[in-house]
């Protein structure tokens, strides 16, 4: 009887060992391990996959190293617009939120939408109004301020560009390696249910309320007990066009691919052909885990009840 398993990511991109100082590398590895332990502990005591991916994602959102929640990047107007999504593979219910300000943990708002509204996807002021009505924690704008994110924003404005947070073009002066990104979690619980969550601050210097793949069901996030749970990270526009997360599920359901085979085809063939850099994590209905990326690195961690335990950064 398959047991329980959890995997998480903290973004993918041009992440090179030679650009990472020892202190920063240790900080990332510790952050990944800390989040992994929180999610895994929930599964270990018989908790649900939904609770595990929610609480694990909260830990990542609260860590300034990652581009989600507290560590979110600056928009063109100097604010922070955050997106998040969660999906339950058992019920196929989901909750998603986009372009929200002042929400401490967007993933908690996404979960609240899934569990306590008749809707799936809320945005902007309406999403914040719903958050206030449900007692979701809000914080002042300066909660999201960090100097290295501000430096990245200034660099992007000077170059008149919009950059992926982990892209080598998103240069700043505070930390030598500026490859931070979307966070995500997938899990299978002891009851055989699977779930996925994803959260992001988007692209540095983004304008016009730009939305990437993270909150879009099937593109950045998807879960179905029949197949798999997937969370993506990378160039959101391409992942949107590829419907990347759902494509993995479809390959498994309709062509009988394994999780590993389906993710390999999507990440290393389809997305590469579309010039989409990034990766994804997945867990299938049997508890198998896969973490694949076509970039030079991906912050990632995984653990299951059979002794597998991995925390890694580089290719």
Instruction: Estimate the mean pLDDT confidence.
Output: 91
In CATH, the architecture is: 4-Layer Sandwich
Q: State the domain count.
A: 1
Query: Could you give the count of β-strands?
Result: 12
- Cα(first) to Cα(last) distance is 32 Å
Could you give the order of strands across the largest sheet? 4-3-2-6-5-1-11-12
Overall 3D geometry? globular
CATH topology: Glutamine Phosphoribosylpyrophosphate, subunit 1, domain 1
User: At the fourth CATH level, what is the homologous superfamily?
Assistant: (Glycosyl)asparaginase
Give the radius of gyration: 18 Å
CATH class: Alpha Beta
The sequence of SSEs as H and E is: EHHEEHEHHEEEEHHHEEEE
Beta-strand residue percentage:
15-25%
Query: Uncertain spans, ≥5 residues at pLDDT below 50?
Result: 166-178
Instruction: Specify the biggest β-sheet.
Output: 8 strands, mixed
Percent helix = 25-40%
Structural category: alpha+beta
Number of helices: 8
Pfam family, one: Asparaginase_2
Binding site for substrate: 210-213, 233-236
Site (Cleavage): 181-182
InterPro entries: Ntn_hydrolases_N, Peptidase_T2
């Amino acid at each position: 009887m398959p047991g329980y398993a959890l995997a998480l990511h903290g973004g993918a991109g041009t992440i090179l060992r030679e650009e990472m100082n020892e202190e920063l590398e240790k900080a990332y590895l510790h952050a990944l391990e800390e989040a992994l332990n929180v999610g895994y502990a929930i599964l270990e005591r018989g908790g649900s996959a939904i609770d595990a991916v929610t609480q694990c994602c909260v830990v990542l959102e609260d860590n300034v190293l990652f581009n989600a929640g507290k560590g979110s990047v600056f928009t063109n107007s100097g604010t922070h617009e955050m997106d998040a999504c969660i999906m339950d593979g058992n019920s196929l219910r989901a909750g998603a939120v986009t372009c929200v300000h002042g929400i401490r943990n967007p993933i908690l708002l996404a979960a609240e939408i899934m569990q306590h509204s008749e809707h799936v996807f809320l945005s902007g002021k309406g999403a914040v109004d719903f958050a206030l009505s449900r007692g979701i924690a809000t914080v002042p704008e300066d909660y999201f301020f960090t100097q290295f994110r501000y430096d990245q924003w200034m660099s992007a404005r000077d170059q008149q560009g919009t950059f992926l947070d982990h892209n080598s073009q998103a240069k700043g002066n505070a930390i030598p390696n500026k490859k931070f990104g979307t966070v995500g979690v997938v899990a299978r619980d002891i009851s055989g249910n699977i779930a996925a969550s994803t959260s992001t601050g988007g692209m540095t210097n983004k304008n016009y309320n730009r939305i990437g793949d993270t909150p879009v069901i099937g593109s950045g996030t998807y879960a179905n007990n029949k197949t798999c749970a997937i969370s993506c990270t990378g160039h959101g526009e391409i992942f949107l066009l590829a419907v990347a997360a759902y494509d993995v599920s479809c390959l498994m359901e309709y062509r009988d691919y394994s999780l590993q085979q389906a993710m390999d085809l999507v990440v290393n063939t389809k997305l590469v052909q579309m010039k989409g850099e990034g990766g994804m994590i997945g867990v299938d209905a049997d508890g198998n885990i896969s973490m694949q990326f076509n970039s030079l690195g991906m912050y990632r961690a995984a653990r299951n009840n059979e002794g597998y335990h991995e925390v890694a950064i580089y290719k």
